[in-house]
Amino acid sequence: MRKILGEMLKAIVFASAVFSLVSCFYGLSAGKADAKEPARRSAWLAYWDLAAGEKDLHKLEKRLTSLSYFAAYFDKDDRLFIPPALIDKKKELQKTGKKHEAYLTFVNDKQNPDGSAAIKDTAVLRRLFADAASMEKHIDEILALALQGGFDGIEIDYERIWKDQAVGQSFLRFTRSLYRKTLQNNLQLRIVLEPGAPFAGTTFTEGPEYVVMLYNLHGLHSGPGPKADRSFIEKTLQRMQSLPGARSVAFATGGCLWGDNGEKRLLTEVEARTLATLHGAAATRDAASRSVAFAFRENGVSYQVWYADAKTLQYWTGIAARQGAANISLWRLGGNADIGKIR
């Protein structure tokens, strides 16, 4: 009996040693796999708020993988251009700061002949996508600006395109051709999509990184409320599963003000905090979104303000990470009180 027990003990010790070795091996393997694909962080630097944006950048830049320069848009003759101050800032930052992957964002905003601006203009896209020759000319113009500016990648942020089925289908052809040419020119490609885009049943080209905006649940188009909440984030992430290849999400800093006189305007976090202090408003944190909200009256008008701070953004990114979306972009740098606390 002692002999049998001894043999059993030896077998148990051997099995335990093997189990430990195997566990260690797989643990190390898992660690190496995770290290190869770390979470990516990106942010937008807007041409109209470069000074404040740069301040935020310095607080966050050690955790950024890429920086998107916002933006190239259209002049009155449908030609693309980059605001000179944005190019100057890129040159300055890349001389003095950390080298991030630099993307040039293209938007479908347009200067009108009278000097006014058409925001998210689908008419200009309809003209540029009119035929194959016009589309290829537009693509070549995009590539030329990105290459001349020394950018590492191109980011397409054309919005409201799905309101017109013809423009939407043309956009798919445009991205396929653009992706092919970015590969030929050693450029990366990110495509920004609105949360209402028809992910399912749409043949998006495989290869680019798709960035879905997880905001605008409430905003200038609606009544008061948060830019995102848990339900909105989870539902959009579920719909995103049909997108091909690399998928990322974007969250918005700041917030919005709504007056009962019909006034609506976007605010940075710093502007919102300043208003709350000025009016002695008591702020509360919403349970579903972790956004900060407060109300005040001025000149007979009742106002509501909702905005995101670092705690809000940390909560949103945590929801996304638990759903497998670890690559996060922030719209935008500038006017954020505690952006350096975001992990």
UniProtKB/TrEMBL annotation:
Signal peptide: none
Gene3D superfamilies: 3.10.50.10, Glycosidases (3.20.20.80)
Record protein name field: Uncharacterized protein
Organism: Acetonema longum DSM 6540
